[in-house]
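So, can you check?
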Amino acid sequence: MEKPLAENKKAYFNYEILKTIEAGIELRGFEVKAIKSGFASLTGAYATIKGGELWLTNTQIPPYQKNNVPKEYNPLRPRRLLVKKSELLELVGRMSGERLTLIPLKLYTKGPRVKVLLGLVRGKREHEKRDVLRKRAVTREIQRTLRK
């Protein structure tokens, strides 16, 4: 996998990632150019299942060139995700039984295609986040003392 074009760094801190799934994303040509130029943002984005299809909602992809975009273009429009039917059925089963969410973690290219890495996640509680911060501080302090 190449360097990500867009990454949701807060997702790794706010959620416990249980499983990752690679999905294709249905885009228009100027959206692909915008993503490859680094204009996309996954902050606040999530995936939903509607009508037997997987949709990526709230992903910000501004136009590559403002003058070459249709007037009705919405940068936050829902975009269809392309996954195998077996993966979709597994997601439906796991999401309905447990309190889980699908969050996009990364946008990247694979060959000429733009792919999205989805994470099946469970939200962390406040004390779990504090524990992570405490562990980071301890390891940072250990590394600092070892360098001296």
